[in-house]
Amino acid sequence: MISSEQHQYRLGAFYVAASALAWSLSGMFIRSVTTDLMTLLCLRGIFSGTAVFAFFFYLEGRRGWTILKSQGWPFVQITFFSAASMMCGIGSMWYASVADAMVIYATVPFMTAGVAFLMIREVPSRSTIIAAAVALCGVLIMLSDRSGGAGSLFGKLLAFLMALTVAFMATMMRQHKHMNMLPSMAASAWLCSLSTVWFAHPLGVSGHDLGLIVTFALVQNALGLILYTFGSHRIPAADASLLVSLEVPLTPLWVWIFMNETPTHATILGGAVVAAALFSHIVVEMRRNRHPAGVSP
Q: pTM score, two decimals?
């Protein structure tokens, strides 16, 4: 017989792993859409934000309006950083290879440790500092490849900005951990649309592209967030981080298999170094924070 706690853990692990799978489809959608970047960001934000807000009100009911009215300055800040990370993230994969963007994105936990130290004086552990140094070496190996030209370099810069804004967002979420984050995630998607609508051409999108963008918004972003919301509170935070990190290797894997976007040797080598640092760091944190009973309820 499986205990109730074990059942909840397995269910939570399944939901979080499924959320990582959904998020890992971003590269496939970006490479499949033929419209321009600004139109993609604008339309995706509209559908994604609407879906997440609908899910929020489904969960909270009438309390949703009270929660929205109580949101303060942290809501504005988190919304801004989330919107910036969305635009930079999609832009990075638009201009650079998906693999390059994800290698840089994998450094988010280490950037978060640095930002948390600067903002809230949270001192990182020695293992975090070592893993961050190893990850930096991996990124430098990847950046040593100049074959992509100026466009690829711009994409890598956007990937760095994505990782940095996610680090600021994660630190603020840690400061305000009792705040409901779904409204910020939904509002940030709408902010993406508001920021890009001036340069977009939504009326000129083909039916095929519109279908892809709607699916991109609902499956990759909204469904991924919904699955993570249901799963993350059932398992320890370190376990959730490990499962979500599956997005890092899966995202370039899909475009490699299905779209023949082969990463360079420098990206493969640098990515392997970063992945080793990332997963080793998460495993160390899991062992350090593991509940004595083995499973958190």
A: 0.88
